[in-house]
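Hi all, long-time lurker, first post. I run a small reading group and we've been trying to get comfortable going from sequence to structure in the token notation. Rather than ask abstract questions, I figured I'd post a concrete chain and ask someone more experienced to write out its structure so we can walk through it together at our next meeting. Sequence below, copied exactly:
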Amino acid sequence: MKRRMTMDGKTGSTVISDAFKKAEEKKTKEAPRTIPLPDLSKIEVGTVSGERLTAINKEAQERKEWAENAGAKLAQIQEEIRKLEGDQNTRFSPTGQQLLAHYKDAEQRLLTAGDESLRQHMEFSKLLNEVRSTDPTHLGEVGEIIFRVCQMGRYKIASEQEVEAGRKEGKWPAGTIFFEKKVYLSFFAEKSSGQRALEAELRKLVDAVKFSKAASIKTRGNSDLSGLVSGKTGYYYLFSPKRTEEDRKFSEGHALVEVKDINKGKTDKKPYGVVEVRDACGSLGWMAEDRGRWIPFLWVERGRVITSNEKRLEKNEFDRAVRVIRVIRALVDVWSKSQKSAATLSPEPSSEETPMLAGESGGPVADSKLASADSKPVATPPAVAGKSKKPVKK
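-- Answer (accepted) --
Happy to help. Here is the structure in token form:
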């Protein structure tokens, strides 16, 4: 009987035999391998001391603070890049091109600094800073921020079923926000402190959208100005009531100012508090022109511009600083008097007058009248002896 041959000259029985051999070899290869047991005597395990844990916590805190400050700095840098790239004259200006290259280099250095976890923390801090600084009257910017939050996996758009369920139950999961006829749900059931901070800032922003510009400023700032008086960092709401001075009438004014430490996170430098106008409208609308600029908190506290001779301000800078100082002090004075009036209705004694409200010699002291939009700055010398930084543009 003639045997059938395959293309390579093998008989059928040989092919079957080879197949069995390959199957056995495959089983052998797939069999679990036994990893040799390590010698436990050679594995050293020491006790982590309290000092070591303290050092670890300190290192982690310093890196977190750096990431938070770097995130804020990155947001500023990218805003300047957008300004320059959005101006068609930048490409025709060597100075503009040089400045753009400088900002892009700084941006790249921050984006590639540290390890992945540090960069993620920095990016998250940058996002938080952008949420806080978003103008609620610009719906496009608010929508863009929410879209980015969703892209980062922090929020999601609720499905029709989730929306229906929420309406039926009459309640929504913690962190839910409503914007432009859409429902956004927090992506996390178990929330970190960072996620809770983000949710709180988003709620503030979205709630502020519902109100007018004045109401949005009030929503974003703390109306209790005791923190502003003491130099505590944070956002504060300044209110100038409707009033008449002689034959002039003034509408209400609203302003949002921030007290911050520009040396935060810099271990080699002492804290340096500054006051920056973030937003304003009404009779205080002129203050909005100073957004992105700051003055030292010491000037506001002392009621005068304090600079060394080599850092004398230009006249327009000096007038601007004095005007801002005078108005802030005057509005704090108005707030303080309203608190004292309210305290007379309570059995509790009113608090003592603060140093900011009491004023000091050598500089303007706020009186009961508010500085109007076109009021003249008080006569304060352009320079007073003392060491202080010069206000700068961001």
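A couple of things your group might point at:
The CA atoms of residues 187 and 368 lie 50 Å apart.
DSSP finds twelve helices and nine strands in the chain.
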